[in-house]
Design brief:
Length: 325
């Protein structure tokens, strides 16, 4: 060290003298000497500083070596490995935060389950993972007034059953029938009476009403009975026609008139006459014979009588011939 310092100083002095010898004027020499001296002083200082720094650096290096040496013995890995800051991945339901180096920090979040519903399985509200299956609806049966319904979520299926009314109330829930109009005893009896009449005789609609009124049922009860007896009035007209033909002879028009007299409509009466199966020639013969049983007739008189009864001329001639005229 001292040798470098001496070399520097001597170099400076040499430079100083050479510059002095180059100058002509003494004044300028002096001033230049001063400036040279100052420069030399500065240079010397700088040299000293650099030397000092050099010494300091040397001592620092020594110090570092002194401090690092004992640690090298205790932590040999740190000395060789480069510094590394962990960078952890985000924690998820199932992933532990992990650094690329393999280090972990904390733990996975775990699923955040929401309960299963009727239509969806147990589900993690964070990651959407599902577990198990939907619980399914918990149906309660449909009633008269409400549809089949899930007691859990309220969903409905189908329609309400509706009341099943009988005798004024619902057979299922006993709700009274708002339209129930109990049939009065008098109506029930009028209906029974109407049905019993129809068992042994044929009646027209109006004829049966008249018959019930004759039995002292009110007109309203009689109408109720006849409206509800279920009779087919065409069939009643035919039945009536057949019963007449059992004990008497009729022309086609005479039978219709008789049925209309019994209060059948003309349409019902024609239905009876058209479907009774009578042979009108035979009816004329039968009628001619019955007249001659109780009275005496000329041939023409008997023909006129049969035509009056509604037989055609041909039927009347047939009838008269059949009794011997
Ligand atoms: Zn790491
Ligand atoms: Zn999850
Ligand atoms: Zn449900
Ligand atoms: Zn009901």
């Amino acid at each position: 060290m001292k040798r470098i310092l001496t070399l520097c100083l001597s170099a400076c002095i040499l430079f100083c003298f050479s510059s002095c010898s180059n100058s002509d004027a003494k004044n300028t020499d002096t001033s230049s000497d001063i400036s040279q001296a100052e420069t030399t002083g500065l240079q010397t200082k700088e040299t000293n500083t650099s030397v000092t720094e050099g010494t300091t650096q040397t001592s620092e290096t020594v110090n570092n070596e002194e401090t690092q040496k004992p640690s090298e013995t205790t932590k040999p890995a740190q000395a060789t490995k480069p510094a590394h800051t962990h960078s952890y991945s985000d924690a998820t339901c199932t992933n532990v935060p992990t650094c690329s180096c393999g280090a972990t920090n904390g733990s996975a979040l775990g699923h955040k389950w929401t309960d299963a519903t009727c239509t969806s399985a147990k589900k993690c509200s964070r990651c959407g993972e599902t577990s198990g299956s939907a619980s399914g609806h918990k149906w309660t049966n449909a009633t008269c007034t409400s549809a089949k319904k899930c007691s859990r979520c309220g969903e409905t299926s189908g329609l309400a059953l509706g009341h099943s009314f009988s005798q004024g109330k619902c057979l299922r829930c006993n709700t009274p029938d708002p339209n129930y109009n109990p049939v009065a005893l008098s109506k029930q009896n009028a209906l029974k009476k109407a049905n019993s009449y129809l068992q042994f005789s044929a009646f027209s609609y109006l004829g049966l009403i008249e018959q019930l009124e004759y039995e002292k049922f009110s007109h309203e009860d009689a109408v109720y009975a006849v409206d509800n007896c279920g009779a087919n009035w065409n069939e009643q007209a035919l039945r009536k026609a057949n019963s007449y033909l059992e004990f008497s002879a009729f022309s086609y028009s005479g039978l219709i008139e008789q049925l209309e007299y019994e209060k059948f409509t003309s349409k019902q009466a024609r239905y009876g006459a058209d479907n009774c199966g009578a042979n009108w020639n035979e009816q004329a013969a039968k009628k001619a014979a019955s007249y001659l049983e109780f009275s005496s007739f000329s041939r023409q008189g008997l023909i006129d009588q049969l035509e009056f009864e509604g037989f055609t001329h041909e039927q009347a001639v047939y009838g008269v011939s059949s009794v011997g005229y």
